[in-house]
Amino acid sequence: MSLPHRQQIVHVIETLANRHLQGKIQAVKLTVTALLSGGHILLEDIPGLGKTTLALAVSRVLGLSFGRVQCTSDLLPTDITGLSIYNRDENRFKFLPGPIFNNLVLIDEINRAMPKTQSALLEAMEEMRVTVEGVTYPLPDPFLVIATQNPVEQVGTFPLPESQLDRFSLRTGIGYPPPSVEKTIIRGGSIREQILQLEPLLSREQIQQAKAAVRDQVYLSEKVADYIFAIVAASREHPMVLSGISTRGAINLAEAAKAAAYLEDRDHVVPEDVRQVAVPVGAHRLILRPEHETVSKQEVLRSLVKQIPVPLA
Predict the structure, then answer these.
(1) Which CATH superfamily does the domain covering 218-304 fall into?
(2) What are the phi and psi torsion angles at 66 (to 5°)?
(3) Is the dihedral of CA 31, 17, 61, 99 positive or negative?
(4) Beta strands in 183-288, from DSSP E residues, in sequence order
(5) Are 65 and 204 in contact (CB under 8 A)?
(6) DSSP-derived secondary structure letter, 199
(7) pLDDT in tens, 58-79
(8) What pLDDT does residue 40 have?
(9) For the AAA+ ATPase domain, which residue ranges apply (predicted)?
(10) What architecture does CATH give domain 6-207?
(11) N or C: which terminus of the chain has fewer CB atoms within 10 Å of its end residue's CB?
């Protein structure tokens, strides 16, 4: 069975990765995975590696409205959600929507904002709505938050609390491009103007249909669900881990695996789909014991997944 709009979405990924965002295939694919699974993605890396360019490029080729928030220590929650302003002519307050009311919202350097402002994103990311002064406003569909985060060692950063990290379905880095690609980038300079000229390759309606196909037409068997639970349970019992993957994390893992299967043109999830997304979905949810805090969470989860027996078909 051919899943709706799968070929067009794969074409989007290949176009971005091969023409405009060379060396970023993994980040592009995981961003689309987050969109298809109804989640959000956190990009963590040092400044200057193209995180903002990636978000802008994805919004352009998918035909999505784009909003950007540059986080600073004095950023207020209303700078994200919007606020009501009194209109003298109409003798009433009028709500002015903030940048969160876009299909794709880039929250740049989220860990430079104060915790109170970070928490303003929670309802939007989880409930697809925003409440301002007692009035609830729905957010558009599709809706995707791409947040970027600087390494916590950098000056002026506030580590995201676990409850905030758990709202992101996936987390990944960008990394330096391969040397040959980076040399080409150096010679060619910034591609921001080129990105702004990109034409949409999909409509919002097609994206909504693709999301519905991932949700309703990709089957997740009981065996695969047991495999996901085995990974989650093992993360909670690992001797280096203080707190493992939450139930929300397990749900996100299942949803991301369904999106991964969709991109491979399968109407069912296989264990390889789960293994493919397990680290981006689960590693940032681990809390390591104090004596192991310097160990890479990604490596802990990667080694753990390798130890879990893969169910037979």
Answers:
(1) Magnesium chelatase subunit I, C-Terminal domain (1.10.8.80)
(2) -125, 130
(3) positive
(4) 241-243, 287-288
(5) no
(6) P
(7) 999 999 999 999 999 899 999 9
(8) 97
(9) 37-178
(10) 3-Layer(aba) Sandwich (3.40)
(11) N
